Every structure is written in structure tokens, then in C-alpha cells.
Amino acid sequence: MKIIVRVLAIVVLFIHIGDGARILGIVPTPSISHQVVFQPLWRELSLRGHQVTTITTDPIKDPTLTNLTEIDLHFSYEAWNKIIMKNILAFNDNPIRGILGFVEQGLDITDQQLRHPSMQSFLKSEDKFDLAIIESVAPVMIAFAEKFQCPFISMTSMDGFTYLYKSMGNPTHPVLFPDSIYPYYEKMSLAQRLGSVISTNVMSIMIAYSSFSQDQLVKKYFGENYPSVQHLMNNASLLFVNSDPILHKIRPLVPTVVQIGGGSHLRKPKPLPHDLKEKLDNEKNGFIYFSLGSNVKSKDIPMETRTTILETFSELPYTVLWKFEAENLSNKPDNVIISKWLPQQDVLRHPNIKLFITQGGLQSSDETIHIGVPIVGMPFFGDQAANIKRMVAKGMGLSVEYTALEKNDFKAKILEIIQNPKYRNRVKELAALAQDQPMTGLERAIWWSEYVIRHKGAAHLRSPLLDIPWYQYLLLDVIAVLLFGFTFSTYILYILVRSLLRLIRRNLNDNEKKLK
Ligand SMILES: *[C@@H]1O[C@H](CO)[C@@H](O)[C@H](O)[C@H]1NC(C)=O
Ligand SMILES: *[C@@H]1O[C@H](CO)[C@@H](O)[C@H](O)[C@H]1NC(C)=O
Ligand SMILES: *[C@@H]1O[C@H](CO)[C@@H](O)[C@H](O)[C@H]1NC(C)=O
């Protein structure tokens, strides 16, 4: 049955192979975890006969994709790598400072990108586009949609922040749906709810603050007569969020918010490199895979943490495969294999894998759910803590804190996950749920992109929330009228009762006088 649904979905997808459109894709964040989410989309759109131009820090560089033109901004990694670990470690002391670091230095990188000769010539081009798909973390880039006068889709490689949902007129709620950087709680205490309200508002203030500088950049590179970035952002036809109902919380969505998550970046299995495959095949006892993703560099984590990790690993009866970005790791135990890069999806698919120790980035989380490997989480920054807490709450594993890592605790958790089958069984259940859907995230993204092209936008789906003032949405005027009505009628009642009592008293007094 599942197969039939799948085939039907694909047939439906291919009914419209109409004329190729011209599509502009902009993903300016120099982080591979942001890029991998959208690479399959560029590939698929170009294979469907559209002329796709992307501005990206990680071009696919596949010569068989003849309809894909890529403007390469790979140089941005140099600036990004200089700041990333500093901001990640600052995040732990003070999330606001960590985020502000990303916001400010992100602007700097956008400036460098727009100054680059390839972008300068693109800015002068007379190209025409039918659709732009733009990563929303760099809102300056939305000015391209205005320049080319085409509808655009806003997208994010994570779940959307509250301000993004708001920009689409999607209902938000700081207690039910805290921002993805706020740690996830199954049930929030009063202090946690207060924290979520404050953090959501601090985030809004930071976004408003950065929008001044964004507007300056638009003026500098695009021209004077551009609407504000905030205004442009509210004009998005759709918002693609990289979330799904299995890993993320169930929430009401307006039709202009499309969930494309749930492993849309997963690719077909590929054989592992020969020597790696041989090593892992021999681990009949099972092996552990340890990676902190692409942004957190294992080689730069605090020395104390690294020492505890190595001591823990040395006491394990399993081999540990560690994605470690330097040549050498001093005091490396014999059961630890390091490698600068590993084909993560294929390592996770290896039948001998027992456990994934992960920082809990969204892509890694999606992969481990879809492939069905239990975890020990070690979050560092951004949405990682929330992702890990959700996975722990779902019974997929356990977590540790890298700032307070303790050998016996870490070791006990690793052994518990490997030796107690309940975690693995639970992940398998979740994998089955995650895969059982009528369309994959990628198929949804393609269908909706072509929908926006066919109808030149999606203004007819625009949320009515965008067109009423906030005080009306919050019922402030209604509450005011009700309060006034209530106070007024209580007052009238009071006057009436008082007059009545006076009347009665007077009558009583008169009667008394008469009696005297
Ligand atoms: C490129 O697009 C054309 C239609 O514009 C299509 O016929 C062709 O198959 C596409 N080629 C590739 C390699 O995607
Ligand atoms: C909003 O987007 C539409 C296309 O969807 C475009 O025609 C219009 O000019 C845009 N308005 C502003 C103010 O950017
Ligand atoms: C790593 O260790 C090997 C042998 O111990 C040595 O030859 C090499 O220079 C080291 N590399 C670095 C980057 O330290």
C-alpha cells in the first residue's frame, strides 16, 4: 500500500512537466549543514527542465546537471571558520551574546559576499526569473526578489524561528512553541514559560535591531528605492521549514508554511570507502560513531572535555569511529579511529553500528531517526539542545553536557544505550513513522515551488493574520469592551442595590417614627 501511495505521488508530481521556468536559489550561509538541505532541491528542479541559478557557498559541481548554473561563494568559509567556534563556546555562557555574534558577523559575511566580483556582475545582470528561493537567515538577499520582480519562497534549514512564522501570519505561542534555540521541555514550569516568553521577545528585538543594518546593506548594493527588509520578508509567497511532525512538535500551520523536513537531504546508500568498510565489517562486537557535525570542530573543543572523552572511550569494549578534523590526536587509545571526514549516512547504515554520539544538529538528528540508530547527545549550541531533549523524551537515547562531562556517567550512558534494546527498538518505531508519508519533504518542496511558478505567487493563500492589527488578534479591544461593560453593569447594579437599600431603610425609619 505504501508503495502504491508513493508511486501515485510521483506520478502526480510528474504530470506537470510544463515549460522550464527560471529559478534563482540563494543559500549564502557558509555551513554545509545549511547547504545539504537544499542541494537535492536544486538538483531535482534542474533535472525537471528548469533553468536553475544558485548562489551558494557549496556548489554541487556536477557537470551532468546542464541546467544548473552555480555562483560560488566558497571563500566565505574563511571568515566563518574564524568566528564559528568562538560564538559556539560563547553561546554556552550567554546565548544572547552567541546569537548576536552570529547576527553581526553574518552581516559582515553578507557584505563580503555582495562585494565579491561574481556577485557584482550578477547584480548588474539583466536576467529574468520566475521564482527565487532564498535562505531567510540572510534577509538582505531577499532584495534580489525585488530586483528581479519575481515571487519568492523563504526557507530555512532548521525549524522556523518565531519571527519567521510571524512573518507568514502563522499562529505562534511562546509556551506551546518556544523558539528552536530554547531548550525543549515536555511540560514547562512557570520559570521555563517565563524564560521562553523573554527569550522569544529578546530574539524579536535582536531581529529588529539587525534589520537597520540589513537595510543599510540593501541601500549600499541594490539602491535607494528599496522597501525595508522587514517589508520584503512579509511578502514571501511561502516559507519552507525543515521540520516534520515526528521530530518536531505538532503545530497548526497556515498553507503558506510548508514542512519539507524529515530527511529530505537523505540520499541513496553508497558503498563505504574500501578500507573503512573493511574495518567496520570486522567490528563484530559493534562500533560507536562519534561526530559533532560540521560546525562544532572536535579539534577545538575544551581540552578538559577532550581528555574525559578519550578516557571514557579507552575503557569501552567497542571501537569508536570519531570524526576528528586534525591529523593527530594525542593520547588516542587503540580502540579509537579518527578521520577528518566520513560519509555519515553510510556509516550510520552499517549493520555493525550500535550507537551514534552526536551534537544533535537537525540533519544528524533526521539521519539517525530515519536510519534507526539510538543516540547519546552532546549538544553545543543553537537548536542542538532542543533537538537532543526531544529525542531523549521520545526514548531514542540519553544525553550528557559537554561542560560537565564526567567519565563514569558518560560511560554508563553509552553502555546502557548499547546493552538495553529498548532504545534501538524505539528508534526503529520512529523510523517507520518518519518514512510513512504520502510525499517526501523533497517532493513537497518541488511541488510547491512549481505551484508558486504556475500561479505567479501565492497571494490567495496569504494568512488573514497579516492583515489585522495586533491588538485585534490579541483581543485587546474586545477585552476592553467586555471589561467596560462588566464594570459598568456592576456599577449600575451597585447604584440600584444602594438606592433600594436606602429606600427600604427610609421606609423602616418612617415606620419607626410613625410607631413613636
Ligand atoms: C535541461 O532542460 C531541458 C528543458 O529545458 C530538458 O529537456 C533537459 O532534459 C534538461 N537536462 C538536464 C540534464 O537536466
Ligand atoms: C510582493 O511580491 C509580488 C510578487 O509575489 C510582487 O509583485 C510585489 O511587487 C511585491 N511587493 C513588494 C512591496 O515587494
Ligand atoms: C602527525 O603524526 C605523524 C607521526 O606521528 C607526524 O609525522 C605528523 O607530522 C603529525 N602531523 C601533525 C599535523 O602534527
From TrEMBL:
<keyword id="KW-0328">Glycosyltransferase</keyword>
<dbReference type="InterPro" id="IPR035595">
    <property type="entry name" value="UDP_glycos_trans_CS"/>
</dbReference>
<keyword id="KW-1133">Transmembrane helix</keyword>
<dbReference type="Pfam" id="PF00201">
    <property type="entry name" value="UDPGT"/>
</dbReference>
<keyword id="KW-0812">Transmembrane</keyword>
<dbReference type="InterPro" id="IPR050271">
    <property type="entry name" value="UDP-glycosyltransferase"/>
</dbReference>
<dbReference type="InterPro" id="IPR002213">
    <property type="entry name" value="UDP_glucos_trans"/>
</dbReference>
<keyword id="KW-0808">Transferase</keyword>
<dbReference type="GO" id="GO:0016020">
    <property type="term" value="C:membrane"/>
</dbReference>
<feature type="transmembrane region" description="Helical">
    <location>
        <begin position="470"/>
        <end position="497"/>
    </location>
</feature>
<comment type="similarity">
    <text>Belongs to the UDP-glycosyltransferase family.</text>
</comment>
<dbReference type="GO" id="GO:0015020">
    <property type="term" value="F:glucuronosyltransferase activity"/>
</dbReference>
<protein>
    <recommendedName>
        <fullName>UDP-glucuronosyltransferase</fullName>
        <ecNumber>2.4.1.17</ecNumber>
    </recommendedName>
</protein>
<keyword id="KW-0732">Signal</keyword>
<feature type="signal peptide">
    <location>
        <begin position="1"/>
        <end position="20"/>
    </location>
</feature>
<keyword id="KW-0472">Membrane</keyword>
